[in-house]
Amino acid sequence: MERRNFVKSVGLAAAVAYVSPKVLGNDQGIVNSSGSESAPAPEFPALPFAYDALEPYIDARTMEIHYDKHHRAYFNNYVKAIKGTPLESMEVSDVFKSVSKQSDLIRNNGGGYYNHIFFWDSLRKGTAGPSPELSAALVKAFGSFDKFREAFSTSAKTRFGSGWAWLYMNDSKALAVGSTPNQDNTLMDISPIKGIPLLTIDVWEHAYYLKYQNRRPEYVDAFWNVVNWDEVNKRYQQAVKG
Ligand code: MN3
Fold first, then answer.
1. pTM, whole model, 2 decimals?
2. From the CA of 162, how far away is ligand 1's center (Å)?
């Protein structure tokens, strides 16, 4: 399955895509007693770049462990947690809309599954910057691009403990920044900051400790060298339309 299709399955677009049961082995796609096939589990998404693609800002060893151990564990635990439940046929982004009614297992692992995909797609070296439309919206909300960057960075640097900082479009269609604890995100009904996410940074220690140790501010400052503005611009366009 193409990565593009997978991204749709976690709710960044409309369609749901599944890996064929054959690929996953014989415990998937089992025909139940009513004769209908249960939903096969989604496939763990490929990392959209090589482990060393973001060097020296984010090192290859960190990327490998972060993706292959941390992200994979959230994914596996989420798939296990929803197995045999009505959530199995739902996009994870739709599960977030009423995640307050779900277990912590689903909230934390669903968040970890989704947030990391969103984070990987937020990262790439060498993109040009915000589009004229996004730039105008950032200036409107924050006064200038530099003030936006400062607000986002401060949010990331000051999030106590583990979590994420976000640029998002709130319900009034204005851009805002803020942070969420643990694996929460702005799509969750339990989040005090709500809206369509546009850009994120993971500030869990596992995202930077090998290279930066306790120096989270250095990692946050380095992050700006690898923001995938092409993706952020695209998300902004979609958010404005939606
Ligand atoms: Mn992480």
1. 0.85
2. 9
